[in-house]
Amino acid sequence: MRPWTSRALGLALLTAAVALPVWWSRVTRDVPEPIPVVQPEAPQPLRPVMVQIPLPTEPFLMGSTPETDPYSQDDEAQHPVLLTRPYLIARTEVTQVQYRAVMGVDPMRGDEDCERAGLGDDLPVVCVSWFDAVAYCNRLSELEGLTPAYVVEGDAVRWTREADGYRLPTEAEWEYAARAGGMDRWAGMDDEADLCAIGNIADLDAQEVYEDWTVAPCGDGAVRLAAVGSYAANPWTLHDLTGNAWEWTWDRYTSDIRDLQLDPEGPSTGSLQVIRGGSWGSIPAAARVTRRYWGQPSGRLVILGFRVARSSPSAL
Predict the structure, then answer these.
(1) Tens of pLDDT along 42-63?
(2) What is the CATH number of the domain that holds 61?
(3) Which of 24, 59, 110, 244 has the fewest Cβ atoms nearer than 10 Å?
């Protein structure tokens, strides 16, 4: 068994078990429309479909408060954040076929736990570390003739801001895109009873297999991983920001990010990377768009994948 697969669920991720106590026992307002992006020709299935995210004209409220969200956690303290750099983000998580095509390897085959999560071209790739995701971004950039976003020297990774290549979204970029300019607790929805319409989470279908789980009161048709794009998109046409697979972000984790308010990129030091979005094994509280978790950058988990982003040419 590959290190940091099932064991990591109990160590790196579920150490913050206040919002996930069971699964390893297992303000609405008008929002702007997404900006269409012309995709240049490239061999499929390499190219992710990218969506230009409309930048806010004023700070958005990142995080949550106990007054508006009973699931709110201390490290989600609500604070204003202003994003000024245009960016694009992928419509879906990176799929298994995309990862194989770019990297030439299959990170899931040969590991019983990873295979059990689900094998299929259109399923999100999981069992990939943060370093794997960085390598994928750079390799895809090279294949498309773009400037890689990252300079990698051993375990040190430096983000070249002026590069036009693929990269991981920052934590603030991820949350702003997931909320699509609104204040819903989940990606495009605030009604917990209907979550299965927008995401693959721990639900009644999963409970048929994992009988002791506490789950959402609905069925999404999947026990483990589901094909990307299977559920309703948020208002900016982005899929699977609630559930399916947790997603790596660029930022290192810190429990207090209230002082990071202008194009935040996380602290400059730290040993853990922020992950967002929840997975097929997440209860509703853990799949909220404000919920913050973390993982070791070398960790490979059966519930953890990623989606890519790019800085828009106008920002470079």
Answers:
(1) 444 578 999 999 999 999 999 9
(2) 3.90.1580.10
(3) 110
